Amino acid sequence: MAQVQNTSFVWEGLDKKGSKVKGETMAASEVLARAELRRQGINPLKMRKKPKPLFGGKKKIIPKDIAVFLRQMATMMEAGVPLVQAFDIVGRGHENPSMQELIMAMKADVEGGTTFSAALGKYPKYFDDLVVNLVNAGEQAGALETLLDKIAVYKEKTESLKGKIKKALFYPAAVLVVAFIVTSILLIFVVPQFQDLFDGFGADLPVFTLFVIGISRFFQAYWWVIFGGIIAAVFGFRQMHRRSPAFRRRLDLLSLKIPVIGEVLRKASIARFARTLSTMFAAGVPLVEAMDSVAGATGNALYQEGTLRIRDETASGTQLQQAMRNTGLFPNMVVQMVTIGEESGALDDMLDKVADFYEEEVDNMVDSLSSLLEPMIMAFLGIVVGGLVVAMYLPIFQLGAVV
Q1: pLDDT tens digits, 256-309
Q2: Is the model's pTM score more than 0.85?
Q3: pLDDT tens, 55-66?
Q4: CB 394, CB 208: distance < 8 Å
Q5: Distances in whole angstroms, Cα of residue 171 to Cα of each of 175, 178, 369
Q6: Of the chain's two ends, which shows fewer C-beta atoms within 10 Å, N or C?
Q7: Range of 137's domain?
Q8: Under a CB-based contact definition with an 8 Å cutoff, are residues 182 and 383 in contact?
Q9: Domain C-terminal end among 157, 175, 196
């Protein structure tokens, strides 16, 4: 059955007291929008579709928007605000029009009798199975506000961890890209100017200068091949990463072997494992069933496969701590904390402590990595750009010495 597309309508009307009011509402048609307003005690006088922006189209919904939405809904529910009213308050107050449209569409579904979890499940692009299953568990147990709070904490911690990983990887990559662009500009546009000057010297040039001029000639002749090859490589990499599980797996395995970066990624995977399992276990999801969602949340193929092995072993009667130990992927401290949690009946609390510890470890390592990389990157840029400058001025220095 095709899903009805809701449209945003801007309206003006009179409330029950006869005062002029205006606002915006989501509905499948203008007739339904007017009917909804009348149901709320508003007599609509003017109504039109909300005009689309002239430039840029709709703003994209990002994971942070979803995390903020879940936190706002958790806060509303804890304050005793009815679900539909909470949707309305959060939706109308959101700054992102696309997110506002999504929230109001879910509100319409809930008003029509759909459960909260089913409304979220209609949008798998934004709400994964883990979130949908946890919300469903909260609805079944009559503790939706408690589960929403746990989900909000989970999403906030997860997005924070992702941000730290991106920070660790983006900074050196961005500097290398800038260094390549600057070097290319120097080789293609600046070095040829010096080359014309050197041709009038009538003397032999230093080997280093000849080497740089040779690279410059190659760049001038084949710059389109170089830049085209880089663009094609980046595009091909993205396509392979998106479509080939074997390629992603190989990349994940190699990433764990990178000095320093690999350790950051390893600890981040352990933190995600612990945080996700803690959240699902606290929600009352059976351990074996939870492992599928936990595996997808680890963010690394090696830990995903390890989690699925843990699922199979626990399903056959093995204790969680023993199954984790058998994978060889988890430090002894993590296994010991899980052992204590199993024996004391507080597994979710122990996993929460493990997640907090490793998230802090990742944070500290990213800060240390940034401090370590800054002087190394400055030295690298100095050698590359400074080397080009020295190569171009070396003949002039030698000519001055001869004169």
Answers
A1: 888 878 888 899 889 889 988 888 887 778 888 888 888 888 888 889 889 999
A2: no
A3: 445 678 888 888
A4: yes
A5: 6, 11, 10
A6: N
A7: 63-157
A8: no
A9: 157
